[in-house]
Specification:
globular; alpha+beta
Length: 172
C-alpha cells in the first residue's frame, strides 16, 4: 500500500512560543520522545512524562534502559512532544534540552512513582529528571489563506463542529 503525501496547505506559518506557553503545552500531553546518545549514536525513545513544579520533565525507566546510563552520567538529552493535525498542517511542537539525572531521594522517588504510571507493562523502578535548561516551542498556525482556499478542519477530514449542526462549539 502506497501512502500519498498530503498536499501543501497554503498559509500555514510557524510562530515561536515563549517558555511558559511551551511548558503549558507539554503538561497538556502525556507522551513524547526522548533523544540521547548511546554508544556514540543518536537514539530516540517514546516515553510518557509529567512536568514537575519547576518545569522539569520526569520519566520512568527500567534497570536495563540505555537512558539510565545517560542519566547516571548526567548527560544532555532532548525531549520533544507535539500535537500536529496532519490534515490542516496546524498544531505545536515543544523541545526541552537539558541534563538528565536519576532521582534518588526516597520521598521524591515515591512521589513520582505515584504520580507517573508507565504505559508499558514492565517494571519501571527508576525515575529520571530532565532539567528544562533550554525550552523552545513552535505553533503551526493557519492564516486567512486557509479560509480563502477552503481548507478547514471539516474539509480536511476532521469531525464537524456543532456550528455545522446549528450550534456554536465543537460537536462532541
Amino acid at each position: 500500500m502506497t501512502v500519498q503525501p498530503l498536499p501543501p496547505v497554503p498559509g500555514t506559518r510557524m510562530v515561536e512560543l515563549d517558555r511558559q506557553e511551551s511548558l503549558r503545552l507539554l503538561t497538556s500531553v502525556s507522551m513524547g520522545r526522548v533523544g540521547f546518545t548511546h554508544q556514540a549514536l543518536p537514539v530516540i525513545r517514546p516515553v510518557n512524562h509529567l512536568v514537575n513544579d519547576d518545569g522539569d520533565l520526569v520519566i520512568r525507566t527500567h534497570a536495563g534502559a540505555a537512558l539510565l546510563a545517560t542519566a547516571s552520567a548526567s548527560e544532555v538529552v532532548v525531549y520533544e512532544a507535539d500535537q500536529i493535525d496532519e490534515a490542516t498542517h496546524t498544531g505545536w511542537s515543544v523541545m526541552v534540552t537539558g541534563t538528565a539525572s536519576r532521582v534518588t531521594d526516597p520521598r521524591t522517588l515515591s512521589r513520582y512513582r505515584t504520580e507517573l504510571t508507565p504505559w508499558i507493562n514492565t517494571e519501571m523502578e527508576h525515575v529520571v529528571r530532565i532539567r528544562a535548561e533550554f525550552v523552545i516551542g513552535y505553533r503551526l498556525k493557519a492564516t486567512a489563506s486557509h479560509e480563502r482556499h477552503g481548507i478547514t478542519r471539516r474539509s480536511a477530514g476532521a469531525l464537524p463542529t456543532s456550528s455545522a449542526l446549528g450550534g456554536t462549539g465543537p460537536a462532541v
